[in-house]
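Hi R.,

Here are the chain sequences for the assembly we discussed:
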Amino acid sequence: MNIALIGNPNTGKTSLFNNLTGSYEYVGNWSGVTVEKKVGLFKNGKDQLIDLPGVYTLNPLSKDEGVVTNFFLNEPFEKLLNILDASQLRRNLHLTMQLLDYGAPVIIGLNMLDVAKNRGIQIDTHKLSESLGVAVAPVVARTGKGCNELAELVTGEAVGTGKPNLVYYGKGIEAGILELENLLAGKTQHPIRWLALQLFEGNPYVRNYLATILHQDEIDELINQVSVAEQKNTGSRQALDQVIHRKRSEAIDKIVSAATTRTGDNKIPLT
Ligand code: GDP
Ligand code: K
Ligand code: MG
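And here is the predicted structure of the full complex:
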């Protein structure tokens, strides 16, 4: 089984990778960029862990960040291991929401819990897991605490793919997703909800992929139609990527508020 490790930069990915995999490691480069590709074997000797570059969002700002979207579009994988920094849950969950749009099985490794705790932040992993519809396993990647349990979970049987349509993106965007479904019927293996949202956010790799199936005009018309509908419905002139980001933020705020308690005087805001 191929399991991809994905998360924001500096969340403990490398530490977790080293804890979960044995010494066997294949090192090469991702195609077209100088970012090294690491694939390690889990200690069960069967399943592989693929280390992806750290990103805040799938929509890439650089070619290096494009590695992640290209991976989703071109490489086979069975599960995603999403590592989160518990002390920056709100920011980290933006990427998670995009993984859940994809609909693949996801397991969350909740790291940096010691940092969160020192800031007086207590996270209820059960509540977080319930709201998202995927397993959440607490780990301390630096010391290896919780890593065996996480390995068992991620290499084990079926896991959750997240609550369907966890984020409601508004009438115009949701209609655009349905429209893309009509246009693509039977012509792609990829989840159309994810393709649509990445397209509306301006992900050039997804756009190029769609241009291999649809005409440029169809794509332009769809994006334009959704922008116009969205502006009409909301009376706002926000660009689609901003609307999508705002919808995710609203959903994330609710989830984080429900799963978090603050203690002590050191109430540093949770970002
Ligand atoms: P990456 O950038 O996502 O690959 O993250 P790294 O594994 O390189 O970790 C970034 C920094 O966070 C390093 O200094 C790690 O030692 C540290 N780190 C990793 N896991 C933990 C943890 O659970 N708690 C704390 N306090 N630090 C951690
Ligand atoms: K780092
Ligand atoms: Mg790293």
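The chain has a mean pLDDT of 92. The CA atoms of residues 128 and 259 lie 6 Å apart.

Let me know if anything looks off.

Best,
T.
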